[in-house]
Amino acid sequence: MRIKTLSLLLILMTASFNASTQIYKSIDKHGNAVFTDKPSTTRPSEPVTLEPITSLPAPANTPSPGFSAPEPAEQQDKPGYSVFSISSPANDSTVRDNGNFTITVSVQPNLARGHRVRFFINGQAVAGPQRALSHKVENINRGTHQIRVEVVSHSGKVIRTAENTVHVQRAIFRPPAP
């Protein structure tokens, strides 16, 4: 009941920004406070005067002792990777291990602080963002698949991408006819 009254009061307070709006308070037959924009004709009501809203400035953004601030975004978003490629499985290669293989990425220099790697197969995310440069996939259906790997910044911006095509062959077991 109290939450309902407080909610009503907050709604009425936001409506009170209009200078011509007056708020009235009355008590209903159950003893609950009722706030309206018109005085009650059946119960005594009194005008409500709201205090002006107090606004405080935002606190200064000072790091706590022992806290290291992240690198500036410009520095994180422009790492200048000389190498970013999918080293395994090789492009246009065939995988024969029942659809199980590991996607491995080569990066030079190492991933910058705040950067992560995401792995996709046929446009669907299968792992990441993560710091690890490899991801094991299992039970991939037979056929041709597109692998894409992305380096993303701490804010989610895509920095670099690499794509490979892989062909998955799976053994088919057909029992002898009876």
TrEMBL record:
Keyword tags: Signal
Domain annotation DUF4124: ranges: 18-63
Annotated signal peptide: 1-19
Region annotation (Disordered) ranges: 32-77
Name listed for the protein in its UniProt record: DUF4124 domain-containing protein
Superkingdom of this protein's organism: Bacteria
InterPro entries for the chain: DUF4124, Ig-like_fold
Protein's organism: Endozoicomonas lisbonensis
Alphabetical list of Gene3D superfamilies matching this protein: Immunoglobulins
